[in-house]
Amino acid sequence: MQTAISDSIKATDVGKQADAILRSCVHCGFCLATCPTYNLLGDELDSPRGRIYLIKQVMEGREVTAKTQLHLDRCLTCRNCETTCPSGVKYGHLVDVGRQVVDEKVGRTLSASITRWGLRTLLSYERRVTPLVKLGQLVRAMLPAAVKKSIPEKRTAGSWPAPRHARRMLVLQGCVQPSMAPQINATAARVLDRLGISLIAAPQAGCCGAVSYHLGAHEEGADFMRRNIDAWWPHVEQGVEAIVMTASGCGAMVRDYAHVLCNDPGYAHKAQRVTELTRDLSEILAAEDLVELDVNGAGRKIAFHPPCTLQHGQKLSGVVEDILRKLNFELTPIADKHFCCGSAGTYSILQKALSQQLLKNKVEALESGMPDIIASANIGCLLHIQTGTRIDVRHWIELLDVS
User: Fold this and answer.
1) What span, in angstroms and rounded, lies between the C-alpha atoms of 32 and 81?
2) What is the pLDDT of residues 244-296, one digit of tens each?
3) 141: domain range?
4) Are 174 and 245 members of one domain?
5) CB–CB of 280/250 below 8 Å?
6) Would you say 292 and 194 are in contact if contact means Cβ atoms under 8 Å apart?
7) Count of domains observed in the chain
8) Are 35 and 48 spatial neighbours (Cβ–Cβ below 8 Å)?
9) Residue 88 lies in a domain
10) Is the model's pTM score more than 0.90?
11) What is the domain-level CATH number for residue 214?
């Protein structure tokens, strides 16, 4: 694609990045067929190719309106288009840049600004989320059904083995997951302990930065990234084997630390090393001899939903499914498993109507094989899907815990 980036932006990091990505697009349109919003709305401006054209116009200095902003807001950033694209267009990076520039030019209404600020200042901090979750769980039984289903049932974490192995790995605790599903990381620690790996959490680490970064607060998101790097760095220097992600959404973001902080002289090198060490939990398990786990899933039917951040963001399609099959779980067939469930971080709040349509389609596909359990690999997907089904929804690692 030929570009003519405006003089006011072409020499900036944002302009250079956008120009390089735009030039890699060849207009083929393969992305349209795998774009969830295009499939729902049928408007090419709600497809990757259409949004690329809109961002190109913005970068070339043409008029930017609230309509441009709306089409970019409707994007899930599921990155399904990246999996489909034969030219390797880094659409996820482009849409982050495009949204940032459009927001600066168009602005937001007071109501929208307050909502986005509230999401960033609440969801990014475990200490702020936890009291609200506990309060919701306390009165959950008395709430209307529509509200009740959005509050997860209380789960106990269970034991976390003390470090005792030569092999040690870090784990990101995250922001929402510790209060809403504390059992996930504790279960991962128990499973890895049986494989001779000690899982360690750095208390100073927190939100991966995705909430702020994907809501256009790039510097705020980068500050979360720097804080995590600072918390992890002593362990990195001591030779920790990996930084394990139990939430694929966080994994996709942390793998991008090197990209986001590439021009930060104080953190570029460290961010690169953190990106290199980052592994999804499934990658760790796939490389181990699972006989030691003594897990036999025979007779249990599982519908596994691969989050977009796992299959498209991290390009780890099929890894979890292979692990479950090796352990004799029966995986039910799922139509259009490459499509998003509609969670997509804060999308289920900011674009509720579209999110609910995607949820309905996803739940129908997951329930079609009459599974005993629905499993996934990202806290947002787990919570979102659970609101649309009566079948128990769990993180896949919980299926491997026989303690």
Assistant:
1) 8
2) 999 999 999 999 999 999 999 999 999 999 999 999 999 999 999 999 899 99
3) 111-148
4) yes
5) no
6) yes
7) 4
8) yes
9) yes
10) yes
11) 3.40.50
